[in-house]
Amino acid sequence: MLELQSDRADLFRLLGDESRLRVLALCAEEELTISELGEVLEESQPQITRKSQPLRQAGLLSARREGTRTYLRADLSAHATDAVVHAALEEGRRLCRADKSFARLPRVLLAREERSRTYFDDNAVGPTVVTAAPLGLSPWLPLLRPLLGPRADGLCVDVGAGDGLLLPLLAPLFQRVFAVDRSPARLAACASVVADHGLGNVRLLPGDATDPAVYEAAFLAGGAAVVVIARTLHHAARPVDLLAACARLLRDDGMLVIVDYLPHDDEHMREQGDVWLGFAPAVLAAHVDDAGLCVVGTAPMAPIVGHPDSHLAWQWTAAARPPPPSLDRGSRTTTPPPLH
């Protein structure tokens, strides 16, 4: 790493290149792969590698390896008070606005989910899987604790309901259940589960947690007591955005329950539309925090025996809104107790 504070000439030379400033600005906006940076800047991957490498060596970009992909993001924590670095970042943002790089960024992020959308549209769930699924739900029983109590009288929203695996488990616990999925094929599978098990309190909603119609339905119901997002977060282009949308569906005392993979290196999962190869607990907790919630419980869990993803390590995490600051100066604000 360059000693930027002691050698200002190196810093000036490094940040005197407009192409590097664009890379820095884009990576400050979003964590991106070399390929994605190439698409946004309309340049080849070797060109992006050549421009990003000096920024990495200087400690202005950090790299995170996930399977065969390397993600780059701006890391300015060591330069929080450096006026030159911040001026360079602002200039990079101006350049990205001028050449429409920022305008191309949403399209590239949307492409992350395109394989997922295509996979779930093209791969309907067979009736054998749907019928057998409720028989193997014992690993999910630890999730019941945050779902019980006063919340059981309210609404549960199953975001990314998929094949309807959880509906026979959730429907008896809650007054109402919304099964939300953006894939017509998956909603059809959910409809089969609802019919087969006589789940009269389940309503099917097309879309996802970011859909205004889903938010309106939850709002009219008084907000969700529990939102479940099971094996769905790893399909999201921006996990924080999806978690924030799930948080908006909750009522004030609501609980978000996340089930997803721990980090793994099975690249074949990308063929099923996976954008991310699992989440480290600390990374997931940071996403939850950025979404305006706080983790109140987390633990590894056994996968469902016979499930196609049973070779991966799974985890569950429960999150809720942080308590409001106390009005009493003499009292202390505490976080919700952990769930066991």
Q: What this model shows, in words?
A:
This protein is of the alpha/beta class and 340 residues long. It folds into two domains: 8-99, Arc Repressor Mutant, subunit A (Orthogonal Bundle); 121-320, Vaccinia Virus protein VP39 (Rossmann fold, 3-Layer(aba) Sandwich). Helix content is 40%, strand content 19%. The chain contains 13 helices and ten strands. The chain has a seven-stranded mixed beta sheet, with helices on both faces. A three-stranded antiparallel beta sheet has the order 1-3-2. The protein is elongated and about 70 Å long. It starts with 7 loop residues before the first helix and ends in a 20-residue tail after the last strand. Residues 126-135 and 329-340 have low confidence and may be disordered.
Number of helices: 13
If classified by CATH, what would the architecture of the largest domain be? 3-Layer(aba) Sandwich
Strand content: 15-25%
Mean pLDDT, all residues? 85
| Helical fraction | 40-55%
Low-confidence stretches: 126-135, 329-340
Short description:
The protein is α/β, with parallel strands linked by helices. It folds into two domains: 8-99, Arc Repressor Mutant, subunit A; 121-320, 3-Layer(aba) Sandwich (Rossmann fold), CATH 3.40.50. 40% of the residues lie in helices and 19% in strands.
Strand and helix map with partners:
Layout (H helix, E strand, L loop, with lengths): L7 H7 L3 H12 L2 E2 H8 L3 H13 L3 E6 L2 E6 L8 H16 L2 H22 L4 H6 L11 H4 L7 E5 L7 H4 L5 E6 L2 H14 L4 E5 L5 H9 L3 E7 L8 H11 E12 L19 H10 L3 E8 L12 E7 L20
Parallel strand pairs: 4-5, 4-7, 5-6, 7-8
Antiparallel strand pairs: 1-3, 2-3, 8-10, 9-10
Helix pairs in contact: 2-4, 2-5, 3-4, 3-6
